[in-house]
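Entry for the shared binder. Reason: the reviewer on the internal report wants the predicted structure included alongside the sequence.
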Amino acid sequence: QQQQQQQRQQEQEAPQPPQQQPQEGRLQPKGEDKARFELTADDLEGILGPPLFDWDASPETRVTAPGVVVGLSTGEFGGRIMFVEAAKMPGTGRITLTGSLGDVIKESAHIALGWIRSHRREAGVKDSALDELNSKFDLHVHFPEGGVGKDGPSGGIALATVLVSLLTGRTARADTAMTGELTLTGTVLPVGGVKHKVLAAYRHGIRRVILPQVNFARDLGDLPPAVRQGVHFVPVQHVEQVLREALLPSPLHLPTSKL
C-alpha cells in the first residue's frame, strides 16, 4: 500500500507536458463556442486545394469571331454552358464532328446543315457560299472539353446558329446563350433541364437566353426570383427567330454615318 501511495505521489510531482497553443489564423474558434469557425472565400483553396480545371469560360473572350456560339446543356453535376465552334477548310463538302459526341447530337448537326441547305435564303446564306461548301470546302464542328461526353437534341439551334454564323460571317452575341431542339422544317421543340441550364448561364454572367416558347411558358416558375428578373428570356418557335436574335449584323450591312 505504501508503494502505491509513493507511485501516485511521484506521478503527481512529475512535470506535465506543455499544452499546445492554437496557431494564429482565420480558422480559430470564436469565444467559448468551440464549434464556430470563421471562413472566407480566401480560405477555400487552402482547404480544398487548387482548382481542378483552370480554363477561361468567359463568353466575352471566346465569342469574338464568326463560327462560335454559346449553347446550354445539363450533366451529372447540373447545368453548364457549352461553346460550339465551326470552321471550314479546303475539301469536298464533308462535315466532321468532334468533342466526345453521342449519336443524337451528331444527328442534330446534320439536321441543322440540312435546314440551311434547303432554306439558304431564310438563313441569309449566299448561293455561292453553299455551292463552294458542296464542292470546295469541308466543315468541322467542335465542342471543346473533349473529356466531357455530350449528347441530346437540345443543341440543335446552337448548331444551326454556329453554321450560319460561319457561312455568313456574322458574329454571335456574346451575351446570349441558347437551347432548343431543331427539326428539318426549322421548328424549335421544347427541351428538358431548363432550370439548370439557365442557372449555368446566370453563373457565367450571361443575361440573355433563347429558349423554346413551350419552355418559356412552362418552366420559368422553377427559377429563383432573382434569376427570373435578372435574365432576359427570348422565346422562339422557329429557327429564323433564333438567327435574328443571336447573330449580329453582317459587317457588310452595318449602317454608315455621313460626314
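Summary line for the report: The longest helix spans residues 103-118.
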